[in-house]
Design brief:
This protein is of the alpha+beta class and about 600 residues long. It folds into three domains: about 1-150, Creatine Amidinohydrolase, Chain A, domain 1 (3-Layer(aba) Sandwich); about 160-300, 3-Layer(aba) Sandwich (Creatine Amidinohydrolase, Chain A, domain 1), CATH 3.40.350; about 305-590, Alpha-Beta Complex (Creatine Amidinohydrolase). Helix 3 links the parallel strand 3 and strand 4 (about 85-90). Helix 14 (about 305-335) crosses helix 15 (about 340-355) and helix 16 (about 420-440) runs antiparallel to helix 17 (about 450-460). The chain starts with a helix and ends with a helix.
């Protein structure tokens, strides 16, 4: 495989030479700037062998590098070994960004190639500006992988499904009316939507185009009175075509989007530059239209759940919790008997979740990391790395499911037997951070970056930290990672609003030793009036015991103990009706007060 990667890079260099460029950049995304993409667009994985969800490859005439974030440092180092591709660790002070690297490697007058369909407008413009300072140009090329990736997967053609109103809570017509109201407030006559989850939410459609994310490859253009849907027509049944017609949505072939936009003469078109590919922006720039760069109004409308959606996610959490209790009970008995591995327990968890009503698949590939593998933040076991589980140390298990009425995402770090003092200390610090965030009460208008320190402070006090975010939005039978809200150190201007569902997942990762993460999903809810206005708090939605065997109890405050005991009481009360007597007895022990 390593030799194959080297040959693929050489094939890319031949195309670069033909195009007259001295470097080419390969991002991880698709024409919709998706985090997870259909196999057709997994060019970065194909050219590098690195399978993580985030990363960018830059290839010059004699060098190649992969830039990725801290979730993937260990994984990338392993997968890139022997390929000739260097690892560049993002967010570290010594790591140059890609423009800085290329400015050093290329001579003034050189040219960097990109495929404009898989670069966002914002990224392409920033790249052009940064490289210009070094006298280096940017050339938009046709997709080079069309020439060198001979067994490339085809574009997805799976059929689209209509998403029932009793799960969606609001009709397509109502959502389009809400969007048009926001368009009017922003002064735009046309709105271009590229984000697949926003389009699926707006039209109440779902699909299977992207692994674990029930979205459909398509574009949507909304005007004051019309909506134009760009999709492969083969994906639409007669019933779905009639449904779209009833919603006053006109269907066009997917590839017609560029030509359609080039006819937007004299209109004001709104788009999100970080979500719209550069090729579409260039098509608009060839017209007399006025382009207004703006946050997508759909992101915020989608993130604030309606009553039926909230009712649905609570029901999904109960079924998911029942499956998890059955899994944890089985795991406790299975590990001492031997024979279980990271991959075998993944299969067992899938089996138990799949038995639940309304189950539609995983919301992401399960991360089951035993021992040192737990320190690899987005580890995914393979037959070569599949570690046997022993009755000692930690298992970090991050998993989730797609149900018709909601999407789940949960991490538990489970003590399989005796622990070291360091393991217990890290586990307790992470739990303290998790509880601090879950207990937060804050004034309306608070942003996630203002709360992030709550989850990190117990770790910082012991000179520990983690480099990933603390919380991300979660979709409703949609993408497991969504915005616009987040809880992380980096500033994000979006305030946390009632109805938003956000994760709470601090962690500690000791390379070569162990990893710890505890994750629940939180619903932002009103907390009443107070000084200078309204206050908000979090309601924990996830229902699953938190392992108590790793806790150094004397390190917890009385309030932290009270939170954990109250949470466990809620877990028992809500899950026990769905369990048999043996399972209830196990859950009673797992949730007993400390």
């Amino acid at each position: 495989m390593k030799q194959t990667i080297k040959q693929r890079i050489e094939d890319l260099r031949k195309v670069m030479a033909e195009e007259g460029v001295q470097a080419f950049i390969v991002p991880s995304t698709d024409p919709h700037m998706s985090e997870y993409v259909a196999p057709h667009w997994q060019a970065r994985e194909w050219i590098s062998g690195f399978t993580g969800s985030a990363g960018t490859v830059a290839v010059t005439t004699d060098k190649a590098g992969l830039w990725t974030d801290s979730r993937y440092f260990l994984q990338a180092a392993e997968q890139l070994e022997g390929t000739g591709i260097g690892l560049f660790k993002e967010m570290l002070p010594e790591t140059p960004n890609i423009p800085a690297f290329l400015s050093k490697e290329l001579q003034p007058g050189g040219t960097v190639g990109i495929d404009a369909t898989v670069f966002s407008t914002r990224e392409a413009e920033a790249l052009t500006e940064e490289l210009a300072g070094a006298g280096i140009g940017v050339k938009c090329m046709a997709d080079p992988f069309a020439r060198i990736w001979h067994d490339r997967p085809a574009m997805p053609e799976a059929p689209v499904m209509q998403y029932p109103l009793h799960y969606a809570g609001r009709s397509c017509a109502d959502k389009l009316a809400d969007i048009r109201q926001k368009m009017q407030e922003s002064g735009v006559q046309v709105l271009l939507l590229s984000a697949l989850d926003e389009i699926a939410w707006t039209l109440n459609l779902r699909g299977t185009d992207v692994h674990c994310n029930p979205v459909v490859v398509s574009y949507l253009v909304i005007t004051g009175s019309e909506a134009h849907y760009f999709i492969n027509p083969k994906k639409l049944s007669r019933e779905t075509m009639e449904y779209l017609d009833d919603c006053s949505v006109t269907v066009h072939p997917y590839e017609d989007i560029t030509g359609f936009l080039s006819r937007m003469q004299g209109l004001t078109v709104g788009l999100q530059p970080g979500q719209t590919n550069y090729a579409l922006s260039m098509a608009l720039s060839s017209t007399t239209c006025s382009v207004r760069e703006m946050p997508s109004p759909v992101a915020l409308l989608k993130a604030v759940r309606n009553e039926l959606e909230i009712e649905g996610i609570r029901a999904a959490m109960q079924r998911d919790g029942v499956a998890l209790v059955r899994f944890l009970m089985w795991l406790e008995q299975a590990v001492p008997q031997g024979g279980e591995t990271e991959m075998s327990i993944d299969r067992k968890l899938h089996e138990l979740r799949a038995a639940q009503p309304l189950y539609k698949g995983e919301s992401f590939d399960t991360i089951a990391g035993y021992g040192a593998h737990g320190a690899i933040v987005h580890y995914e076991a393979t037959p070569e790395t599949d570690a046997p589980l022993l009755p000692r140390g930690f298992l970090l298990l991050d998993s989730g499911a797609q149900y018709l009425d909601g999407t789940t995402d949960i991490t538990r770090t489970i003590a399989l037997g005796p622990l070291t003092d360091d393991e217990r200390l890290d586990y307790t610090l992470v739990l303290k951070g998790h509880i601090a965030l879950a207990s937060a009460v804050f004034p309306e208008g608070t942003r996630g970056a203002q709360l992030d320190v709550l989850a990190r402070m117990p770790l910082w006090q012991h000179h520990a930290n983690y480099l990933h975010g603390t919380g991300h939005g979660v979709g409703h039978f949609l993408n497991v990672h969504e915005g616009p809200q987040s809880i992380r150190m980096q500033e994000n201007p979006v305030a946390l609003l009632p109805g938003m569902v956000t994760s709470n997942e601090p962690g500690i990762y000791r390379a070569g030793c162990h990893g710890v993460r505890t994750e629940n999903l939180l619903l932002t809810v009103p907390a009443g009036e107070g000084m200078f206005g309204r206050y908000l708090r979090f309601e924990t939605l996830t229902l699953c015991p938190i392992c108590t065997r790793g806790i150094i109890t004397e390190m917890l405050t009385a309030d932290e103990i009270a939170w954990l005991n109250s949470y466990h009481q809620m877990v028992y009360e809500k899950l026990s009706p769905g369990l048999n007597e043996e399972e209830r007895n196990w859950l009673a022990q797992a949730t007993r007060a400390i």
